[in-house]
Design the sequence.
């Protein structure tokens, strides 16, 4: 019989062994003070380096693509349960990062659980064409 802790350890081991090095850069949004000021994103804290398994959006996401929630060239990234994927952040793939991504849709961060423990986190990301977030 497999215990929840063993399953969690196995999943984390798989992600670390077969994943891609990713840089997560967190941001804080500041609201402009005057009529000519626009919102600005400030880097908050230091970059964190994690390992994530990368997959293209596939057949299982056809409904989300048909509804316009995802695009065919979006990616799925699987992180282990300890990675903080909340808030506003940008994802760089590789070390040094060669491509930059942002969360494709805020509603699509999936964190399945077993016995109260998060097994992994699945995040849909979209390539940033200019390499930065709006307002950065």
Sequence:
């Amino acid at each position: 019989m497999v215990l929840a802790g063993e399953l969690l350890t196995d999943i984390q081991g798989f992600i670390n062994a077969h994943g891609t090095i990713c840089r997560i850069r967190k941001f804080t949004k500041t609201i402009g003070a005057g009529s000519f000021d626009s919102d600005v994103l400030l880097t908050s804290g230091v970059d964190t380096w994690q390992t994530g398994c990368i997959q293209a959006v596939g057949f299982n996401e056809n409904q989300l693509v048909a509804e316009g929630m995802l695009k065919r060239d979006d990616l799925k990234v699987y992180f282990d349960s300890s990675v903080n994927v909340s808030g506003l952040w940008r994802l760089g793939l590789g070390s040094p990062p060669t491509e930059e991504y942002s969360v494709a849709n805020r509603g699509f961060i999936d964190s399945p659980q077993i016995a109260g423990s998060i097994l992994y986190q699945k995040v849909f990301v979209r390539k940033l064409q200019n390499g930065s977030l709006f307002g950065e």
In short: The mean pLDDT is 83. The helical segments are 4-18, 62-66. The first strand starts at residue 20 and ends at 30. Strands lie at 20-30, 40-43, 48-56, 75-80, 88-93, 99-103, 109-110, 113-114, 117-118, 120-127.
